[in-house]
Structures are given as C-alpha cells and as structure tokens.
User: Fold this.
Amino acid sequence: MTIAEKIIKSHLVSGQMARGEEIAIKIDQTLTQDSTGTMAYLQFESMGIDRVKTKRSLAYIDHNMLQSGFENADDHKYIQTVANKYGIYFSRPGNGICHQVHLERFAVPGQTLIGSDSHTPTCGALGMLAIGAGGLDVAVAMGGGAYYLNMPGIFNVRLTGRLKPFVSAKDIILEVLRRLTVKGGVGLIIEYSGDGVETLSVPERATITNMGAELGATTSIFPSDNITLEFLKAQGREKDFTELHADDDAGYCQSMEIDLSQLEPLVACPHSPDNVKTVSEAGGIKADQVCIGSCTNSSYQDMMKVALMLKGKTVHPDTSLTISPGSRQVLKMLAQNGALAEIISAGARVLESSCGPCIGMGQAPASNAVSLRTFNRNFEGRSGTKSAKVYLVSPETAVASAINGRLTDPREFGEPVAVDKPARFYTDDNMIIPPAPRGSAAEVVRGPNIKPFPIGTELPEALDAPVLLKMGDNITTDHIMPSNAKLLPFRSNIPYLSDYCLSPIDQNFPAAAKKSGKCILVAGHNYGQGSSREHAALVPLYLGVKAVIAKSFARIHMANLMNSGILPLVFQNENDYELIKKDDTVSFENLRWQVENGEVTAVINGRTKVQLKIEASERYRQILLYGGLLNYVKAGSGK
Ligand code: MIC
Ligand code: SF4
Assistant:
C-alpha cells in the first residue's frame, strides 16, 4: 500500500477504497482560520452539538488582522468565545499562520486533519493526511461526522538527487506545477518518495505539500522518517512520532521523477501558479515590491536564509521589501539570535505573523507594479491591485531580487548561505488558549457584524432561470467572492458581500442577480479553483444562483456548492458549452428524479436540449434534494 492508502484504511468508516468510489473517513483533528471560521462555527452551532468530538480542534486567527473597524475584532471575539464553549483550542492573533503553527505544534503522522482552508495539506509534510474543505464539512467533522470524499488516485512523485545551492523546495513544487498544471492534481493525492526525500527538511517538505493545493490535488504527503522524528524532537513532540513509508510494492496510478540536481530557480508568472519559467528565461524584470512570507515560505529556516542573505546589504531604492514570519515561534527565534536585526538593518518592512499581503490584507502594490512574492497564488487582483503583476518565487530569488531591484537568479548572488536545523525550537504555547472545561458556563459573544447565513431549500420539481454570466476556464474563488482588505472584514456578513459577487468578471452581476431573483451560471473547466471559502457558494445561494453549468469543477468548490444546495452540472458533451449564451433561459422538468439519477436534461430557450450530469455520489445527490448538507444532517441523515 501507499502511505495515503494506509492512513485511509485505518480511518475508513464506509465505502470501498477503489479510485472514484465514495469513501468516508474518520477525522482526528480539525482546523479553522478566522476568514472561514465564523461561518464554520455558526453552522456548527446550528447543529445543536454540545462539544467537539475530535481528538483535537483548533481555531486560528491569522487572516483578518487589520482592525480598521470593529468587524475583524468582533469576529475574533466570536471565534474565541465559541471555541471556549465547544472544546476548541484557540490560537490568538499574533501566534502565526494556521498551517505553520499546526505543523510546528499539532500535526501528527498517520492521523487525519481537515481544515477550512485550501492549504491544509501543508501538514502532509509530517505524514499526516491533511485535506482542505468547506467550513460546513469541517463543522460536521467537529461534531463527530465522517468526511466524505471520492477515493483519489495516488500519484507518485519520485525525487532523486539533491538540490544545488540557491535552488530550493519552492522550485521543486513550481516544477511539479509546470509539468502538471493547476488542473493536473484533480482527483489525486500526490505522494512523494525517492532518495531525494531524505535531503529535504520538514519545512521544505511543507512548502511542497502546501502548494500541492495549486495543482487541484486532494492532498500531498511525505513519508514519516528520521527527518520527521528529528523535527518533532526539536519541537518537543517526539511522542507524536510514528514511522510511515509506502510498501515496496505500493501501486500508484501514475508517477513521475524529478532529479533535484537538475533544477534551477523557477518563477510562476502572472496570473497563474502554473505559468512557470526559469528565472533566467523570465529575464530581469524590474521589481517594485518583494514580499516574503505566507504559509508556503515562512518557516524558521526560510527566514534565516533570508536574514543571512540580507546581512550587510540594503534593499534597492525602488523596491519595497516586506517580511512576515510564519509564526511567533519563528519571529521569537529570529529576535533572539539577532537575525531580525539583520532583516531590519537591510530595510525590510517587518509585518506581523499572519497571512498579510497574501490575501490582500495590506501592501497592495502600486498601479501596474511588479510584485515578487514567495506565496502560492498570483491570481489577477488578489494582491488588492487589479493592474499589478504578481510573480511567485523562492525566498532566495526574492532576496536577490529585492537587493538588485529586478528579478534575479539567486545563483548570481555570491556565496551560498547554509542554515542548520535547530536542535530545539522555541516552544511556548501560551498564546494557545485551551477551552473551558466540559460543563462550565461559557458565553458566546456575537457583535453586530455577525449576520445569519443563508440556508438552501428543497430542490423543486421544475425550474427555469436566466443565464446571467457565461465564463471561461479556471475561474477562481477569488473571482467568485473576492477577498481584500475592504471585503475580508465582512466574512460573517453574507448580505454585505453579495454586492461584490463575481464583480471582477461583471460588475453588474450582483444587481442583475438581485433583480432576477434566480439565475444560472455557465463556466468552462476547473470552475472554482483556489480557496476553500464557502462564501463562494453561500453568497451565490443568497443571490438566487440555482445551478452552475460547467465543463468541470474544482473539488472543494464543487462540495461547497452541493453543501449549499446549488446544482453543479457538468456538460456530457463539452462542445455543448457553445449552445448556451448569456441571457438564455434554461429550464428543467422532473428535476428531483433527474438529480437523484445523476443525469439532467436542460432545455435552452424552450428549444435546444443539452445533456448534463452530476459527477457526485448518491449521498451528495440526496443532499441536493434536501437543499444542502445542513438540511440533510438535520433531517437525521448525516452520519
Ligand atoms: C486563500 O489563500 O485564498 C485563503 C484566504 O487562505 C482561503 C481561505 C479563505 O478564502 O478564507 C483558502 O485558501 O482556502
Ligand atoms: Fe493565508 Fe495566504 Fe496561506 Fe491562504 S495562502 S492561508 S491567505 S498565507
């Protein structure tokens, strides 16, 4: 068996472990962050369960850190008090980015984790089966419900050789993205093996598993070996260690090999993480801004490399350099050993340990600016500036470029820097607040920004609605429900967000949808890639979107649509995409029966028939009949 199969087998609640079959697995741990957490906890509360039933559940505050009004602070208070009441550990603002802190302090090899954030697979670096999901799926798991997914294929990436100086883990995952594209991982778990694995530290492995999300993969996973043990020991957690390897005769659905010694520094060019070139091919583009941090590249080792490269240098006068260490553990260690002083002396702008510029919470670049970032997503407009061009690079490339003021191959930089793995990390969990003991009185505080969320209604027998938008391939959840410093404070306020839904594609869509009261969306391939935000389903639900007809869907978004009771319909014949135009009327008859059977006929303008299908299990088709997962669970079907 592969590593992933071993973990799935030991957690299997129902189903056959055959590729594509629906399986249900028991979840050991959950995590939420604040921008998806408020919805997840509101949904959890509405399920009427008195305490979480997982081994460990964590609520992090790391996204909405700019408190420019009362809204974010209200959300923090709500999450802190709800966590306290229901048995959830609370990681305070300032303690760090959820994935980095979870890797340091909580991830356990061989266990399962789901998180309401698409980069939850980061903890796969420690041999954990870690999956990103919508908030409602996480709420159900907190309540002790299993997590349902289609058994993925297991794709083997064999790493051989050793990285050359100035080439780093980021370049490995950019190479995987170059080869597989942002759709290449759909329906797959990416499992790493080969002697190259032993040359990579846990934080390096985490950069790779983190950005596996950009492949559309269900998750990515590394073996749990001596390197894992060493890391856990240094975190004072050796008791959490179990060894995990694939069997020699493990069967993979596909495989590919990467010789690490052949790699060179790479860059993902605008506006997609798979638009990968070598740094030298991309040329010496002028860099207006360089941002180092995010859940992809903000570990102690990354930051130490950055500090050593910056030592004695000054940032180029035309370039702004920001640095956000991934956790308080990292920041404190940099402060203690003097590295922070080097970073400050070089002229970097040091931000707090949080997502920051990665989710457009500050540091929006200037008009038409080029921003080089060590992050994982460079979708258009995500930085907060629509005309900005974001390039994704390694920390080494980022520093070399910040000093030169233009995209620079770090191998031109001078002597390579070496960072030792710390024998002992600074481990003080005093910013993690344990929940109130069972049975004690605990009050949940709800500020005025916390608004009720929409709930779907039973699927009707017949439906007709206009097509208000026709879109192309690879529409991201950043298009569907944009996030930036102005909108993130309203993640608990669906009515407010609804005025911005799909606005990067058509500014008039929200008003048109409200006027029409019901509508249908049409899209190409990979609709809903990117973030796990269920706002990209809840807001359309609020606006009356009844169905999305697409060539294909991204995994988490499709689950979020179904959980909200919105039909995700796939063309049986891709070319039929041409038969539907904006403003056409689409009608369905006998809809409940058709959805139950997974095949749906749509009639366009009362004339043309288009054959569609629902690529989901029988259980999900039932959920659609109920008008969403919450109704289904409340009806007693949801275990
Ligand atoms: C992201 O990177 O897009 C986010 C913000 O972390 C999201 C979650 C969200 O939209 O709140 C994610 O990746 O799931
Ligand atoms: Fe935060 Fe960015 Fe990571 Fe999302 S991708 S969790 S916004 S650091």
